[in-house]
Design brief:
Chain lengths: 436, 313
């Protein structure tokens, strides 16, 4: 194995066996999936225990509305609240007592629920939705306009604007601006995170080698440039490994999660739920198929490949600079004054990205996706909005040339810096090292 | 000659680190590289190791201009040395050996030999941070000599060792020389120079101030001082008695300084007239005295010589 290969292997293996790496690699997908699945899961959680509600309806108007079904049993009785309370104190079947003391269309506060235990929200909202529907109909009927109900139903506007993108080959694709936004931002954030996280790792690694005083031993075996590149490449592979693991693990977890959810979903529960929210089953189905159509409208292969290219390009651009800083300072406190000018453009790129996502075609977005210090992040948010190929090529070419440039400059600083101890380094000094 | 350095010049921004330095290291000898901090020793060593390139001049190994690939023939123990703290001892030694170009099998075999010889097999799976400084130095020493280099460069090798381990290391160094290695030994410890080195170069202010065989140098720095043991007191106008004392047995021990023109035999003839001579011995200056004298003569203050600054570029 060549020397640089040995260094890459060492940098890679010592990092991927670290506890922090393993934890982060396995926990992050759980977090991702949690964020996606948890809300749906919670929404689907239903209390299927039977509920027995005793109703005292002093108006006698709501017998028809409160009908018993599988879950809810309504018993209409007469009597005072105290009486009912006494007789049902130790009755395990008893859930709540509903007292309707007046016509709800005139007095909306006339219904009261009594119970011994804290009632769950579901029971309350179920009863409330039934009663309000009744009140609504009652009120409509009071207008005495024939066919009013049909008229209202008819006037409900439920518009759905579909966005269709003309592909270069003339085919029409259903596109979703929201989806493009999400994909772009997630990719941009990931690149931003990887550059900062792994760039800092490169810097700390170099700084440790210098502080440990092992560097002189190693540069008597390999050239300083090989040591620097070995470290940068080794850590890049760690980053790619982590990213790949995240994609694979998220996919696996999502698949398991959705299988589990589908299995546990009760069709009647969906019926109830959609009935309550006024959405028909066909609409639910439409929503899911729309989602898949939207997902498949993006060129995932292109986005994936370009993500890796921009990740590597951006990382290499910054990592060599981080390595140069790590080599020039003796401790972390000294490093801070030099890291700021480097992290600044990365942070700036996130702000530009937030703007570009709203107007991906603007010249502002264009220029920042060409400038190499911001292009990896900014281009990622523009990509899902179909950027012209020549812009992508130009941006990548500039990025590649730039990282070759920064690596060359960093190599010069690094070579001198790693063997320099006990000296506060200034920008002027570094400039001398580059020229030297 | 295993190593020849010819007229090497190295200029750093605003400061001349080496100014026409030449030296030759004969095969299978121990060569002392002396000089105060900041004299340019480390720069010279780095040039020999191909870590930095000279501005002019050349370094030849076995008669051929040295190339970066040749560093596998060199083992270098820098003054500023260390190991990866979080890495295991064995793993790390193997890594460093492989960076020197050894195959995995050869490296493991050599490591087994040396770990057994130093009786440190138990450390193989320990992390370096668990070792004491002296223990880590031993591991570092092994990684330096593991690939069986022709040329070994030790920069202050004994720092961090207790007297027992210093003696052990000295024996190892002598044994390596006897087995055919050539050693460059950079140090401030002059007694070990007298003990180990055949030849030396003394560098100060970027130049070689003194060079040659240790015995010759000491002889040429003679102060014409002698130690004489005799049965009675001595005194004459041919020499100056610096110190004279009588011990319990009644013998006299005198330290005298003679005129350089006076031959030793004439001195003895004069003494024989006065007393019975038991012992007669020339006191040669120690390397330490020569070091301080030479450095002082070239303009550095003693403070500068003894200052233990680490900034040496």
């Amino acid at each position: 194995m060549s020397k640089i290969g040995l260094i890459i292997k060492k940098e890679y293996t010592t990092r991927v066996v670290k506890k922090s790496f393993i934890l982060m690699t396995f926990l992050t997908p759980l977090l991702f999936v949690g964020i996606i699945i948890l809300p749906t899961w919670i929404a689907n959680l239903q209390d299927s225990t039977k509920k027995h509600v005793i109703v005292v309806d002093r108006t006698n108007m709501y017998h028809e509305v409160l009908k018993s079904n599988d879950i809810y049993t309504f018993d209409f009785v007469n009597g005072s609240v105290e009486q009912i309370r006494e007789t049902n104190t130790n009755n395990k079947d008893f859930t709540a007592l509903l007292v309707i003391s007046d016509d709800l269309s005139r007095n909306p506060k006339a219904a009261t629920l009594y119970s011994e235990k804290q009632l769950n929200v579901e029971l309350k909202s179920y009863i409330s939705s039934l009663l309000s529907k009744q009140v609504e109909e009652q009120k409509l009927a009071a207008y005495n306009i024939p066919d009013l109900k049909e008229m209202i139903q008819d006037s409900k506007a439920d518009l759905e604007i579909s966005t269709i993108k003309w592909g270069t080959d003339g085919e029409e694709k259903e596109a979703s601006a929201e989806m493009a936004l999400i994909i772009g931002m997630v990719a941009a954030m990931l690149i931003y995170m990887f550059i900062i996280m792994y760039g800092t790792q490169v810097m700390n690694g170099v700084m440790q080698e210098k502080a440990n005083r092992i560097v002189e031993v190693i540069v008597s075996s390999v050239r300083p440039f090989e040591l620097m590149m070995g470290k940068i490449i080794g850590i890049a592979l760690v980053g790619l490994t982590q990213f790949l693991m995240w994609v694979v693990l998220t996919f696996i977890l999502l698949t398991i999660g959705s299988l589990f959810m589908n299995g546990s979903l009760d069709m009647s529960a969906i019926n109830d739920l959609s009935a309550m929210q006024g959405i028909s089953i066909s609409e639910v189905e439409n929503m899911t198929t729309d989602f898949y159509k939207m997902i498949s409208s993006f060129n995932w292969l292109q986005i994936g490949i370009l993500f890796v290219i921009y990740f590597l390009g951006g990382y290499l651009l910054y990592a060599s600079l981080f390595a140069a800083i790590g080599s020039s300072v003796d401790n972390e406190t000294d490093a801070n004054q030099f890291t700021l000018p480097i992290t600044l453009p990365i942070i700036l790129s996130i702000f530009v990205a937030l703007y570009s996502v709203r107007s991906p075609e603007s010249s502002f977005a264009f220029w920042f996706s060409i400038i190499p210090f911001t292009s990896p992040v900014v281009m990622m948010v523009r990509l899902p909005f179909d950027v012209p190929t020549w812009e992508i090529i130009l941006s990548i070419a500039v990025l590649i040339l730039s990282f070759m440039g920064t690596t060359w400059v960093a190599g010069k600083i690094y070579r001198t810096g790693i063997l320099m101890y006990g000296k506060k380094v200034t920008w002027k000094e570094m400039w001398k090292w580059i020229k030297y | 000659m295993l190593l020849e350095v010819e007229n090497v010049v190295k200029q750093y921004s605003g400061h001349l680190a080496l100014d026409g330095v030449s030296l030759s290291v004969p095969n299978e000898t121990i060569y002392g590289l002396l000089g105060p901090n900041g004299a340019g020793k480390t720069t010279l060593i780095r040039i020999i190791n191909c870590i930095t390139a000279p501005d002019s001049g050349e370094v030849r190994l076995n008669g051929k201009r040295i190339r970066p690939e040749d560093v596998r023939l060199i083992g270098y123990l820098p003054e500023e040395r260390g190991l990866y703290k979080k890495m295991k001892v064995g793993e790390q030694a193997l890594y460093l050996a492989r960076l020197k170009g050894m195959s995995k099998q050869d490296a493991l075999k050599a490591l087994k030999y040396w770990f057994e010889k130093f009786e440190i097999q138990a450390w193989w799976n320990k992390k370096v941070e668990e070792l004491s400084k002296g223990m880590a130095q031993k591991v570092q020493f092994i990684t330096t000599i593991l690939h069986n280099p022709e040329l070994l460069i030790f920069d202050e090798p004994f720092s961090g060792f207790d007297p027992v381990n210093t003696a052990l290391l000295k024996n190892e160094i002598l044994e390596l020389r006897d087995k055919g290695a050539t050693i460059i030994f950079s140090t401030h410890n002059m007694s070990s120079v007298e003990e180990l080195c055949e030849n030396i170069s003394l560098v100060n202010r970027s130049k070689i101030m003194l060079q040659g065989n240790v015995a010759d140098i000491r002889a040429s720095h003679t102060t014409h001082t002698f130690n004489i043991r005799s049965t009675s007191a001595i005194d004459t106008n041919l020499f100056e008695v610096i110190e004279q004392k009588e011990d319990k047995k009644g013998t006299f021990e005198s330290k005298i300084k003679k005129n350089p023109e006076l031959k030793n035999n004439d001195l003895l003839k004069e003494l024989m007239k006065q007393t019975e001579i038991i012992a007669f011995e020339e006191i040669l200056p120690s390397m330490n005295d020569i070091f301080i004298e030479t450095v002082r003569a070239t303009g550095a203050s003693v403070d500068e010589i003894e200052a233990n600054s680490t900034s040496e570029d």
